[in-house]
Design brief:
Layout: H1 2-10, H2 18-32, E1 34-40, E2 43-50, E3 55-60, H3 69-80, E4 84-90, H4 94-102, E5 106-111, E6 120-126
Length: 128
């Protein structure tokens, strides 16, 4: 789900192998972030990785986007935050940009700080 959603959002194939992603999820992401999954009929349809100050990953299965899953996951991260969250999204991912801006995130930076070597956008949300 994560790989397919990311590939659809970026319009390019994932650069990491499946095994590399499994290792990243188990050995790195899960140790640094709270990882929440949304299951429907035992299938993962959404995931978010966050801590009190940052959202590292937020992906929704391409067939389940627009159904409030992302909004619910984002609300959970906001509730667990210290009142401020940052996240990066790829500049090519216009759908994500609209989503985050709709939910109160503001652009605070731009750059190329990712393995895909694609322009990205740094967003910030503050609890006001």
């Amino acid at each position: 789900m994560w790989r397919n959603s990311k590939e659809a959002a970026l319009g390019q194939k994932e650069i990491h192998s499946f095994d590399s992603h499994v290792d990243f999820l188990n050995q790195i992401l899960a140790k640094q972030y709270q990882v929440d999954l949304v299951l429907m009929d035992e299938m993962v349809v959404g995931m978010i990785a966050y801590n009190e100050g940052e959202i590292s990953q937020l992906y929704i299965h391409i067939d389940f986007q627009g159904n409030g899953i992302g909004q619910a996951l984002l609300a959970r991260a906001k509730e667990q935050s210290a009142g401020r969250l940052i996240l990066y999204t790829f500049e090519v991912n216009k759908k994500a940009q609209r989503f985050y801006e709709k939910h109160g995130f503001m652009i605070i930076g731009r750059g190329y700080e990712n393995e895909e070597d694609l322009p990205d956008i740094l967003y910030e949300w503050k609890n006001t």
